[in-house]
Amino acid sequence: MADEAIPGAEQPTAAAVEAPVVAAPEAVVEAPAVETPAAPAEPNPHETPTLLEGFKDKPEVKAEEAKPAEEKPAEPGAEAKPAEVKPEEKPGEAKPAETPAADLPPITYEFKLPEALKDDSDKMGAYTGVLAEHRVPPEAGQKLLDMHATAMQSYAEQVAQNQMKVWNDTRADWRKQVMADEQLGGAGHQTAMGAIARMRDMFVSEKDMPAFDEFLRITGAGDHPAFLRMLHSAARHFDEPGMPPPNPKPSPSNGQAPKGRFRDAIYDHPRSGGSR
Known about the structure:
Layout: H1 14-17, H2 63-66, H3 121-133, H4 138-179, H5 189-203, H6 209-219, H7 225-239, H8 261-266
Helix pairs in contact: 5-7
């Protein structure tokens, strides 16, 4: 039976049998999962973080690493070891008093402004105010300022490249539309462009031609199908003969040779009968 005592065996006392009290481990708070957004097909300069935005001064701590170590219950009869006392936490020793930030001497910040940045006293005042609040050394503040200028310069160059690419793609699409046009493209493209160039030379003076060419490049009008169709229509209007007026009337001479001195000057040959 479980309650019967075994002869010859020492019965443990109540104090030896009682298990020591172990504090329950604290609840583990798991860090929220951070969702990483999907990268776009092409990087957008307006959404690209700068070097300062992507800088992290503290590494991320994984949830598994944040869990406290589980404590095993002490075996019955085992003596509890006294808690270790760190040297800096010895009883009777006082920690050295920290100097309040208000009593520290102020830090003077004088920076060499990079060429990519403009002198703005309000923004520089806000920047130095943040540095002074956290007592950042001046040399570290200069490095951060240089990194910011480099990031902004790269950003501006990327934006300019994207704008030029969009504009070049637009003009290339216009040229494709011209080649596919019934009037301007196909086998008669060279003939149509010759007529268009003739209209340009007719209405644009030689003095204004450089400015007109600049207008075509800046606006892309020289590649736009609507602008080229307008000049092509003007050339067709000038090249084709005009229609006769409705109900045409015959000339007063009705096709007869003119009379008088003008007639004699033309028909002055003896056989023509001009001089009689």
